[in-house]
Design brief:
The chain has 368 residues and is an alpha/beta fold. It has 3 domains: 204 residues, 3-Layer(aba) Sandwich (Rossmann fold); 67 residues, no CATH class; 60 residues, no CATH class. 44% of the residues lie in helices and 8% in strands. It has 16 helices and 8 strands. A 5-stranded parallel sheet has the order 2-3-4-1-5, with helices on both faces. A 3-stranded antiparallel sheet has the order 6-8-7. α10 crosses α11. The longest helix is centred in the middle third of the chain and has 20 residues.
Amino acid sequence: MNFSRKLPVGIQSFEKLRRDGYLYVDKTAFIRQLIQSSNPYFLSRPRRFGKSLFLSTLEAYFLGQKELFKGLYLEEAEEEQAEFEQRAAWEAYPVLYLDFNTGNYIESDELGMNLNSHLCKWEKLYGVEPSEQNFALRFAGVITRACQQTGKQVVILVDEYDKPLLQTMGVNETLNEQYRNTLKAFYSVIKTCDQYIRFAFLTGVTKFSKISIFSDLNNLRDISMEKQYAGICGITQAELEANFQPEIQALASEQDLTYQQTVTTLKQWYDGYCFSPAGDNMYNPFSVLNAFVKERFGSYWFSTGTPTFLVNYLKEAHYFIPDLDGNVELNESGLETYRAVTENALPILFQSGYLTIIGYIKEARLYK
């Protein structure tokens, strides 16, 4: 069945989504919250959860693309906030968007090629200095010149910062260590150039803070488990029922279910994610949209494949996954932190989307 509405399965560009008339679950209220601070942010979410689309939305906002926000929360909110702050609304900033989604980082020069490609593109816009001989120095130079030449502080957006590390973890540890050193120096520039930076947002699946990737970036705010940002990616129950009534009804008809039975079944299949003890349960958008397009329930997220890094990791850890169901308790630091040891695979299982929070023991500050 062809819906009259276009569902954005696999669409990661906010501009394409809006210009081509795809359905959009409005997440722009989160942008208003985020822009109140100039400190850099970090967000961890499982794959296919909408991180890239949210970054693209941030990019459109900071490029001043007002027309893309017509009818959304931020259309009026930005005008109100600008008036309150006595500034122009929809100001355009120089945006440096670094995307690690593409590339096979098993090849030893792939990370360098990716960084060089981005830097060359930016240097064509803002110039280059011969004395800048490594990636970190070139990045710092681009940021400084972009601010000086435009008179505006720079916005930095990094998508899937950890993909080079994940692809080489357990496969080529020498290359993994090389990547870590390169990225540590590269990301440290966000701290050293903070006077030139208006906003920075980094996303990934895992948190490598304890193995020094962000050790120099000590002002990084991790919002991955903050209640106010629990719904920043994915679909809440309220969003599902408010935005997808025609699709729910069509799925109900195809499956010979009532509307409410379909809502209940969707919840049973896809509402298994929780990123804060006090936050809403979240639906995986990739699974939900596929269920609506194909008009049947299925394991869409899981069927896209378990990441190789996780398969290798679990082999080393010798975990029997069914034993973990409802039988795990971890404190906050244990849940949030990924360490490069196989003795504890629980944090990486949670961050990858294979474990979720089902309860919180407040007195002991333990997650279940």
